[in-house]
């Protein structure tokens, strides 16, 4: 897929990258990712969650497709979490609805080429290290060989660094020492590690840098280092088109740097969040545990002290007293809400003003 601009919106779970946001992003020449996670209501339970979440996801795709022309509809990416209990079902539902890009995070996509057997569908794993990317490439090379010595390979990688919001595929130690595990460092390692596989495939494997990217100058820096594009989340959270509630957006404007902390999520990964009442109570084991879904296979709700699905659904609904608010490390820099068009213009201007030498080739 080729987009006018080398950046776009990553998935923000439980509906925050859905609604009017992906269409607005695509209309401005950028890539957009819809979340598949947690779209059903609170009134489902363990027995009904998987079907209800898939039905809500299909409805969200159909709503988008009714609003988009055929060209833009084909450019939409959807994000799935490998740790969900119904991941294969969500992927198949998306492909059946004509989605042409599957972004797979929170787990290794061991069987993704089997689940998605349509070669026209782009398969894009999210990784946080060169080792993870090489593990995927080796696995797919062994399991899914093609004629001529090639194999079914990822169409791109999204490389998420330690400054990302939400769940992060690095250890707490790595996250707290970004000077050793910065996105710049792991990008260089990843580009070097995948080069032999690019030679086997006879094509480039684009790498999209993500995590803590704020400005056009940031995007230009990663492009100059070899990335094919940049993914942003928090910047799009602070747009009019994002379906986050007004009180949620205002809380971001009021945010201070010291309000952003790392927690141990029930998912089994570290997460970057706003330190609010839910986080404080969870630290003291004072949250009443209610797990209505059993939606995540690795969930450690009793150890973490709260249900992440319930907390994130509360965020979506604007019930901030019961919410968990994911945020990138630079989220404290939000000082106003702007339109997607204004954000796009700002980022393009920053890229164009950069003195760095940028690649002429376009891979996204």
What can you see in these coordinates?
- This protein is of the alpha/beta class and 364 residues long.
- It folds into two domains: 7-244 and 334-352, Aldolase class I (TIM Barrel); 246-331, no CATH class.
- The chain contains 15 helices and eleven strands.
- It has helices spanning 21-27, 49-67, 70-73, 87-96, 112-115, 130-143, 172-175, 183-201, 216-224, 234-237, 246-253, 277-283, 301-304, 308-317, 340-352; strands spanning 7-9, 31-35, 77-81, 101-105, 122-127, 157-160, 166-167, 207-210, 229-232, 260-264, 270-274.
- Strands 1-2-3-4-5-6-8-9 form an eight-stranded parallel β-barrel, surrounded by five helices. A three-stranded antiparallel β-sheet has the order 7-11-10, with no helix packed on it.
- Helix 2 (49-67) runs parallel beside helix 4 (87-96), helix 6 (130-143) runs parallel beside helix 8 and helix 9 crosses helix 15 (340-352).
- It is globular, with a radius of gyration of 19 Å.
- The model has no long low-confidence stretch (mean pLDDT 90).
């Amino acid at each position: 897929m080729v987009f006018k601009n080398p950046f776009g919106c990553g998935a923000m779970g439980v509906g925050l990258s859905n609604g009017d946001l992906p269409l607005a992003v695509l209309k401005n020449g950028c890539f957009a990712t819809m979340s598949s996670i947690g779209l059903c209501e609170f009134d489902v339970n363990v027995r009904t969650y998987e079907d209800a979440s898939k039905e809500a996801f299909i409805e969200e795709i159909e709503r988008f497709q009714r609003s988009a022309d055929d060209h833009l509809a084909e450019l939409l990416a959807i994000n799935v979490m490998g740790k969900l209990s119904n991941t294969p079902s969500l992927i198949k539902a998306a492909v059946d609805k004509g989605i042409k890009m599957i972004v797979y995070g929170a787990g290794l996509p061991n069987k993704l080429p089997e689940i998605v057997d349509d070669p026209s569908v782009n398969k894009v794993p999210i990784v946080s290290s060169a080792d993870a990317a090489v593990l995927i490439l080796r696995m797919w090379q062994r399991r899914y060989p093609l004629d001529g010595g090639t194999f079914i390979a990822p169409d791109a990688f999204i490389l998420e660094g330690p400054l990302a919001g939400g769940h992060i595929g690095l250890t707490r130690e790595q996250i707290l020492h970004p000077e050793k595990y910065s996105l710049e460092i792991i990008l260089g390692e990843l580009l070097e590690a995948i080069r032999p596989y690019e030679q086997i495939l006879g094509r480039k494997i684009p790498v999209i840098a993500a995590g803590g990217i704020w400005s056009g100058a940031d995007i230009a820096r990663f492009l100059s280092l070899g990335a094919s594009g940049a993914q942003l989340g928090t910047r799009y959270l602070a747009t009019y088109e994002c379906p986050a509630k007004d009180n949620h957006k205002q809380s971001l404007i009021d945010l201070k740097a010291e309000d952003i902390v790392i927690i141990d999520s029930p998912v089994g990964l570290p997460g970057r969040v706003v330190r609010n009442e839910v986080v404080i109570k969870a630290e003291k084991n004072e949250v009443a545990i209610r797990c209505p879904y059993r939606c995540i296979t690795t969930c450690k709700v009793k150890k973490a002290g709260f249900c992440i699905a319930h907390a994130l659904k509360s965020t979506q609904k604007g019930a901030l007293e019961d919410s968990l608010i994911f945020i990138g490390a630079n989220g404290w820099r939000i000082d106003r809400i702007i339109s997607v068009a204004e954000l796009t213009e700002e980022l393009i201007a920053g890229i164009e003003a950069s003195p760095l030498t940028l690649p002429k080739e376009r891979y996204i």
